[in-house]
Amino acid sequence: MNNLLSKSILSCLCAILLYSCEETNYKRNLDSIPLATDAQINDWEFAQNSLLGIKANDPVNSSPTPNEKGAWTLAYPQKQHIAGRFNRYGAYDEEKIIGDFQAFDWNLMIHVSNEFRYLYDPIYESDYSDDWMGCLSPGDTCGDDTNNSPCMWAEIAPYIDIVRGERWFVMTNNKDHCSAGKYIDKQDTICVYGPFVQDDEHGDQPEIHPAQQFWFRNNQQQAGPSEHFLLFFLQDASRRFEEWVAPPLYGQYLIAFRVKPKRTSNTINTNTPLTINISMLEKYELVTSKFSPYRVDSDNGSTHTLEINGQNMVVVNEPENTLDDQNLGVQFVDLCKLADGTVQGYVQISMVIDDPNSAPYGACILGVEIVPGKNAAPPIKQIN
What we know:
This protein has 384 residues and is of the alpha+beta class. It has two domains: 22-62 and 246-384, no CATH class; 64-210, no CATH class. Helices cover 14% and strands 34% of the residues. The protein has six helices and 20 strands. It has helices spanning 2-17, 38-50, 117-127, 160-165, 292-295, 322-326, and strands spanning 26-28, 54-57, 72-74, 80-91, 96-98, 101-103, 106-112, 151-156, 189-194, 196-199, 205-208, 213-217, 227-234, 249-259, 274-284, 303-308, 311-317, 329-337, 343-353, 363-371. A hairpin with a 5-residue loop joins strand 10 (196-199) and strand 11. The longest helix is centred in the N-terminal third of the chain and has 16 residues, at 2-17.
């Protein structure tokens, strides 16, 4: 009777204080997880092998209209992923003054990997021009662009304070597009997501512009078994794409995982979970907390655990800062299993940037550490 009374009192207190009394772990039974379809397996393996194990997504499908936007023509109706080797970087030191707003471009040159040539090649074959800027080969001096390789720009003009802070990329001048980044070296893998366009002012060359999401390994922290990544979600602040980047902007990152739980919970649990640690590195106008569908987590608190058959298989640690926690929605999505009982899925991180009533300078830059656990997928591959 006392136990029933205690539970009743606790339930009332929870209701009064507006706290949830749900379990803190996201619990699933292996038998209830559906078998993976061929499409799900192919999608997971493509993310793992071609996108550093991480996909980007626009959950509201805010694709640009097919009409021309200034000097850019949309090449494909949907936002696209592009990945490849980072070749060089530049940032204009000339301020673009648009109305009362200033902006700088980040320009990232990518040698497109074979998996994404199906997007690049049709444009090359139909519209190639000597005006296209290409990759630099080893030994080339700055300015000696080679155009015989599948290379393209990914460009965006972040909020001016991000650019001037030079935390991620140093400033260059408008003739020097030969630099690396502070956390990415030349020939490292880089992945980008955004509108695939052709630049009418440069011979209709292909670009991802604006490159709203891009990610790569953090080469200053690649030590030991853990993988470290930097994930950028940015609004173009140049006001050249106002219709295409109208606030608010919704973005998601999906981190692929595979784990193999024991089939019963009666055995001794020797499993160590796959652990993903998320840190908030820089933010401006991060407003996810105002949009309830995107701030929701799979379970309570700032630590989220996928529990299968009583075993903790994946643990995700958000920033302990309450506001940062509320501004990231963390969920385990698209769970399915292979024939041998391996469970695959994604850790989905949802964000919303730029309040409609503010200036256009939303940004969220995350650091992600992936610590392998026992019975987890092999390390994420570098693109060849």
